[in-house]
C-alpha cells in the first residue's frame, strides 16, 4: 500500500473511532501483561487479554458465576486455536472469542481493534486503566437495629457456639461441631440465642495454603486431576458456607425489628439447618476426595468468598440478598452443566454427591428468600424493588444468563426477581 493511501486509511479509521463507541485504551506496547483490568464508569469493568499469538480480546472482568476476578485468571489453549480465560475462584473457563464456557455460563465480550500501534475497545461506557472512585451509597440500609452493648459468654447460647465454630480452624472439627450444636438446638438442650461478639474472619488451619486467586492452577479438562480440582474447590466453598451460616446467626442475633421485637426463633432454626447441610456437604466432598486419592488441603484455596460477608456485615437484608439469593442461586444455575461434566467421565459417585448438594441448595435459596420477604414486610418495603436496589450496591456487575429457571422457581425465585438485573442489550 502506498504511503499516502496508508495515511488516509489511518485517518479514516480514527474518524470512525471518534464517531462511535470505539475507545482508545492504550498503546499496544503498554499491554505487556496477559490480562489488564479496564475500569468502566458504569461499574461493569472489563479485562483486556493479550494472548501469546499477539491478539487482543476483551470481556467482563467479573465472572458470571460468583463475580470472581477474571483479570487474575490464567489463559489456557483449548484446542483448535482457541484460548480461554480461567476464573481463579472456581476454574470456570470462558472462551476469549465469544465468552462461552464449558460450564454453560456466558460472559459478555467486546470487540477489540488494533490500529497504528494503538488498542481500541468498543463499549458505550467510558473506560480507564485507573480505578474509578466509587461513591459510597447505602440507599437500602435496613431498619433493623443491632445492639451489641452487652455480650454473653453463656455456653448455653446459640451465639456462643456460633462464634466458637467460626473460630474452629479444622474443617472436619468445624463440621462435627456444627452437627453437635444442630442436634442440641433441635432438641432444645440449647434454647438461648444470646449475644456474642463475632470474629472478624473465620479461622483456618495454618497448613492450609491460602493464595491469591490468580495463583490457583487447575487440571486440564476431562482428567482425574480436573475432577479433583473441582471437588476441592467445592469443598472450600462448603467450608465457607458453614461459616457464612453461623456468621449470620451470631452477627444478627441482636437484630430488632422496627417494633422492638427480635427475630423469631424460626429464623435461627432455619440457618442452623443450613449450617448442618453445608457441614454434610463438606464431609461428602472430603470423603469423595479421599476416594479419588486426594484430600482437602492438598491444593491451595482462596478466601475471596468471605468478601460478601464483610461487605454485608452491617445489613441483614443485604446479606440475605447477596449470599443466598445471588450466590447460592448462581450455584443452582451452574449445577446442570457441572453434573454433566462428571457424568460424561463416568464418575457416578461424584454425581450422587452433587445431586444431594443441589437439592439442599434449593432450600437454602428458599430460606434466604423467605426471610428477605419477611423483613421487607415488617419494614413495609416492596420486596422486589428493595432487592433490585440492594444487589447493584453489594454485587459487582450484572446478573448473567443462563439461569436455571426451574431450579430457581422451585426455590421461589421467579423471573421477576432476577431478570431486571441482567445487563441490557447494547
Automatic annotation (TrEMBL):
<keyword id="KW-0001">2Fe-2S</keyword>
<dbReference type="InterPro" id="IPR036922">
    <property type="entry name" value="Rieske_2Fe-2S_sf"/>
</dbReference>
<keyword id="KW-0479">Metal-binding</keyword>
<keyword id="KW-0411">Iron-sulfur</keyword>
<feature type="domain" description="Rieske">
    <location>
        <begin position="22"/>
        <end position="121"/>
    </location>
</feature>
<dbReference type="GO" id="GO:0046872">
    <property type="term" value="F:metal ion binding"/>
</dbReference>
<keyword id="KW-0408">Iron</keyword>
<protein>
    <recommendedName>
        <fullName>Rieske domain-containing protein</fullName>
    </recommendedName>
</protein>
<dbReference type="InterPro" id="IPR017941">
    <property type="entry name" value="Rieske_2Fe-2S"/>
</dbReference>
<dbReference type="InterPro" id="IPR054716">
    <property type="entry name" value="Sol_Rieske_ferrdox_dom"/>
</dbReference>
<dbReference type="Pfam" id="PF04305">
    <property type="entry name" value="DUF455"/>
</dbReference>
<dbReference type="InterPro" id="IPR009078">
    <property type="entry name" value="Ferritin-like_SF"/>
</dbReference>
<dbReference type="Pfam" id="PF22543">
    <property type="entry name" value="Rieske_4"/>
</dbReference>
<dbReference type="InterPro" id="IPR007402">
    <property type="entry name" value="DUF455"/>
</dbReference>
<dbReference type="GO" id="GO:0051537">
    <property type="term" value="F:2 iron, 2 sulfur cluster binding"/>
</dbReference>
Amino acid at each position: 500500500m502506498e504511503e499516502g493511501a496508508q495515511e488516509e486509511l489511518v485517518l479514516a479509521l480514527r474518524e470512525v473511532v471518534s464517531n462511535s463507541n470505539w475507545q482508545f485504551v492504550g498503546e499496544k506496547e503498554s499491554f505487556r501483561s496477559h490480562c489488564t483490568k479496564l475500569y468502566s464508569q458504569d461499574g461493569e469493568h472489563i479485562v483486556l487479554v493479550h494472548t501469546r499469538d499477539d491478539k487482543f480480546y476483551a470481556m467482563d472482568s467479573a465472572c458470571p458465576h460468583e463475580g470472581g476476578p477474571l483479570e487474575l485468571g490464567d489463559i489456557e489453549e483449548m484446542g483448535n486455536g482457541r484460548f480461554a480465560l480461567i476464573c481463579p475462584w472456581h476454574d470456570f473457563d470462558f472462551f476469549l472469542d465469544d465468552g462461552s464456557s464449558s460450564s454453560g455460563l456466558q460472559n459478555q465480550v467486546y470487540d477489540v481493534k488494533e490500529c497504528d500501534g494503538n488498542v481500541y475497545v468498543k463499549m458505550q461506557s467510558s473506560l480507564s486503566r485507573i480505578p474509578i472512585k466509587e461513591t459510597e451509597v447505602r440507599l437500602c440500609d435496613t431498619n433493623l437495629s443491632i445492639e451489641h452493648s452487652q455480650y454473653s459468654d453463656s455456653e448455653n447460647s446459640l451465639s456462643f457456639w456460633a462464634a466458637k465454630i467460626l473460630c474452629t480452624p479444622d474443617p472436619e472439627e468445624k463440621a462435627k461441631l456444627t452437627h453437635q450444636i444442630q442436634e442440641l438446638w433441635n432438641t432444645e438442650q440449647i434454647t438461648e440465642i444470646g449475644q456474642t461478639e463475632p470474629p472478624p474472619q473465620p479461622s483456618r488451619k495454618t497448613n492450609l495454603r491460602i493464595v491469591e486467586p490468580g495463583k490457583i492452577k487447575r487440571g486440564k479438562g476431562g482428567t482425574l486431576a480436573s475432577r479433583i480440582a473441582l471437588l476441592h474447590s467445592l469443598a472450600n466453598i462448603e467450608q465457607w458456607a458453614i461459616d457464612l451460616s453461623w456468621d449470620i446467626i451470631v452477627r444478627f442475633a441482636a437484630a430488632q425489628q422496627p417494633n422492638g421485637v427480635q427475630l423469631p426463633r424460626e429464623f435461627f432454626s432455619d440457618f442452623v439447618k443450613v449450617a448442618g447441610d453445608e457441614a454434610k456437604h463438606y464431609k461428602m466432598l472430603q470423603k469423595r476426595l479421599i476416594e479419588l486419592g486426594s484430600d482437602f488441603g492438598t491444593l491451595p484455596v482462596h478466601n475471596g468468598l468471605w468478601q460478601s460477608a464483610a461487605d454485608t456485615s452491617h445489613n441483614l437484608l443485604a446479606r440475605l440478598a447477596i449470599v443466598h439469593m445471588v450466590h447460592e442461586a448462581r450455584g443452582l444455575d451452574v449445577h446442570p452443566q457441572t453434573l454433566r461434566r462428571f457424568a460424561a467421565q463416568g464418575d457416578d459417585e461424584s454425581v450422587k454427591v452433587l445431586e444431594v448438594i443441589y437439592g439442599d441448595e434449593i432450600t437454602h435459596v428458599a430460606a434466604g428468600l423467605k426471610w428477605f420477604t419477611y423483613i421487607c414486610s415488617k419494614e413495609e418495603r416492596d420486596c422486589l424493588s428493595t432487592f433490585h436496589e440492594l444487589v447493584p450496591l453489594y454485587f459487582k456487575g450484572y446478573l448473567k444468563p443462563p439461569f436455571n429457571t426451574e431450579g430457581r422457581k422451585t426455590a421461589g425465585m421467579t423471573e421477576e426477581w432476577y431478570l431486571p438485573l441482567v445487563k441490557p442489550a447494547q
